[in-house]
Amino acid sequence: MPYLTVQEIETIAERIVRAYHRYCAQQNQTVTRIDPEIVTSNVLGLQIAYHKLSRFGHVLGLTCMLPVQIQVFDDVEHPVYAPLDGRTVFVDESLRSENANIGRHNFTLMHEACHLVYGMLYPETYLGVQLRRVYYSLRFAPRNVTPDWEEWRTNMLASAVLMPKDLILQYMQEYGLGKKMRMVNRIFAARQYEAFSQIADKMGVSKTALAIRMKQLGLVDRNDLNNPYSLIDICCDETDR
Fold first, then answer.
1. Which of 180, 199, 204, 233 has the CA that lies 20 to 30 A from 98?
2. pLDDT of 241 higher than 60
3. How far apart are CA 188 and CA 206, in angstroms?
């Protein structure tokens, strides 16, 4: 696995996003979000297939850089093996159901496609991985679990593709947030939080993913998404000193 800086990952994402804009211009389509299905199929030239990837739904996506057979559970009582050919990503079929979380679907698809992007860009580096037929899977995991290096940088690339800085800034201006938010907090900054939520919906990403991305880009000072009362905790701590 090659070592990549955050800026190098951002540069790869920018190349993909520019290609996406060119494709949309050719189709006379206005870009309001980065559609991962178009990126995967039309920009990267990869295939997408939907299967039930595990008995209990804990596997969200799978891919591999060389041909391999993967057990799928479309019929739970009679699982079969489906081929991954090195140019295909598998996404769990539950993510395209009527009540599915669109942000989770989009991030899962883009994440798996980004594994293959790295394989296409650095084939020699991934030779050992290819020969061992290593496959990558995105699973439900506790929030406090730190992903390994490969998963971390794939998350970084997927985030940068789905949430380009220019597009975030465009929507921040449109929704009255200016060039930087003080905090993402539904209790103490309710109006700004509502605008932030609308931006996440507009971009087809989860609020969690957008908050993390904006924090990385320096577009928000505080991310209190998971604990809106943390501001009180800080004030109380300072008072007790």
1. 199
2. no
3. 20
Contacts of 57 (CB under 8 A, 6+ apart): 92, 94, 140
How far apart, in whole angstroms, are the C-alpha atoms of residue 115 and residue 136? 8
Question: In whole angstroms, what is the distance from residue 140 CA to residue 103 CA?
Answer: 14
Q: What separation in angstroms does the CA of 7 have from each of 10, 103, 121?
A: 5, 24, 16
Q: Has residue 133 got a pLDDT over 50?
A: no
Q: Where are the beta strands (DSSP E) in 52-139?
A: 59-64, 68-72, 80-84, 88-92, 135-139
Residue 2: its pLDDT value, please?
72
pLDDT digits (tens, 9 = 90+) for 170-184: 999 999 999 999 999
Q: Label residue 239 by pLDDT band (50, 70, 90).
A: very low
Backbone Cα Rg of the chain: 19
Residue tagged 């980004």 (tokens): 114
CB 137 within 8 Å of CB 64: no
Distance CA 239, CA 234 (A): 9
| CB distance 109 to 123 below 8 Å | no
Reference 114, options 188, 10, 241; nearest CA is 10
